[in-house]
Amino acid sequence: MRADVDLVVPVKTLDRAKSRLRGVTADRPALALAFALDTIRAALPVVRSVVAITDDPVVVAELAVLGVETTPGPEGLNPALRHGAALLRSRDPRSVVGALQADLPALRPEELRAAIAAADGRAFCPDRQGTGTTLLLSEPGGDLAPEFGVGSAAAHEAAGARPLVGPWPTLRCDVDTAEDLDVAAAFGLGRRTRAALAPVC
Ligand SMILES: Nc1nc2c(ncn2[C@@H]2O[C@H](COP(=O)(O)OP(=O)(O)OP(=O)(O)O)[C@@H](O)[C@H]2O)c(=O)[nH]1
Ligand SMILES: C=C(OP(=O)(O)O)C(=O)O
């Protein structure tokens, strides 16, 4: 894929985020924040720009330290993504606009780079179970048209996006459950996630 890639990353308000990880840690909002920071840090060297859609002031402040743009968005994942995609499209009519989930704490930049390079037009990366979506890419100049949610892999494929399946397991490893976290840990978690999980001494 040759066009510049600009990414929208949705980050839910931390005290409501990652509800399925209740019990994994005493500070779930801190873990959700760490996931987002590790995901975005891995994406930054790969793409031209990242804009995070979030209403959370802690996320805004932490991303400002990394030099990452944030903007508030409407309630709900797909509305937030459409809002961010419209912003990016207004800046460049020919770019590839992508949506990257913010819960990929083992993501390696080289794997994201390889998946993006393999895309030829509208494409998506299924999660490791094959049912969800971790990355959605528009065709150059095209609409993002996100259909995230239960069964999003099938929805994106039915809407004409091609599945990106290749040697990028960390891109497929979104973390929704304690079991997902174990799988991500085996790949190697990002620094902020390791710190969030470490017991305080
Ligand atoms: N900006 C924004 N992001 C969202 C919203 N809902 C989900 N997200 C983000 O979308 C991505 C995928 O969401 P999920 O994997 O369902 O994460 P979650 O909603 O925090 O987790 P659960 O509470 O367990 O469903 C994550 O990056 C979330 O932060 C929303 O309403 N607004
Ligand atoms: C919203 C999605 O993710 P999750 O299953 O992680 O909530 C999705 O895969 O479309």
Automatic annotation (TrEMBL):
The enzyme's E.C. designation: 2.7.7.105
Q: Which reaction does it catalyse?
A: phosphoenolpyruvate + GTP + H(+) = enolpyruvoyl-2-diphospho-5'-guanosine + diphosphate
Respond yes or no to whether keyword Transferase is given for this record.
yes
Q: Name one GO molecular function term.
A: GTP binding
The UniProt annotation places phosphoenolpyruvate binding at 133, 149, 152
Top-level taxon of origin:
Bacteria
Gene Ontology terms: biological process: F420-0 metabolic process
The EC class name is transferase
**One Pfam family hit:** CofC
Q: In which pathway does it act?
A: Cofactor biosynthesis; coenzyme F420 biosynthesis
InterPro entries, sorted: CofC, Nucleotide-diphossugar_trans
Name the keywords, alphabetized.
GTP-binding, Nucleotide-binding, Nucleotidyltransferase, Transferase
| NCBIfam families, alphabetized | F420_cofC
So what does this one do? Guanylyltransferase that catalyzes the activation of phosphoenolpyruvate (PEP) as enolpyruvoyl-2-diphospho-5'-guanosine, via the condensation of PEP with GTP. It is involved in the biosynthesis of coenzyme F420, a hydride carrier cofactor.
The family annotation for this protein states:
Belongs to the CofC family.
Q: Could you identify this protein by its name?
A: Phosphoenolpyruvate guanylyltransferase
